[in-house]
Amino acid sequence: MFLIFIISALAETNRHPFDLPEAEAELVSGYNVEYSAMGFALFFLGEYANMLLMGAVISIFFLGGWSSPFFFLEGFFGPFFLSLKICFFVFLFV
């Protein structure tokens, strides 16, 4: 179940090998040429926000969310461990 969710998250965030909107035969970056300056920045900000969202969903559903792997670090360090897990999956997506 976990592997299926990871594969579908990769497809949702248009990551390799599911990056079909951008064809390899095009000379430049394909659909990105149509955007300029702020539109281009907002487009990629949306893509990276989607990666953060998928990392958060995977972390909460499959890795225990804010739970610590060490029993003596529970409580105060919860947001730190959640952000660490999210950053791990964003690193895997990129």
How would you characterize the overall build of this protein?
The protein is built from three helices and no strands. By secondary structure, it is mostly helical. Helix 2 (38-62) packs across helix 3 (78-93). The protein is elongated and about 55 Å long.
SS summary, helix count: 3
Principal-axes geometry comes out as elongated
Q: Find the count of extended strands (DSSP E, 2+ residues).
A: 0
Average pLDDT number: 84
Provide the helix percentage: 55-70%
Radius of gyration: 17 Å
Q: Helix/strand/pairing class, anyone? A: mainly alpha
- N-to-C span: 22 Å
Outline the low-pLDDT stretches: none
Percentage of residues in strands: under 5%
In brief, what are we looking at here?
The protein is mainly α.
Question: Which keywords apply here?
Answer:
94 residues; mainly alpha
Helix and strand layout, with pairings?
Elements: H1 2-12, H2 38-62, H3 78-93
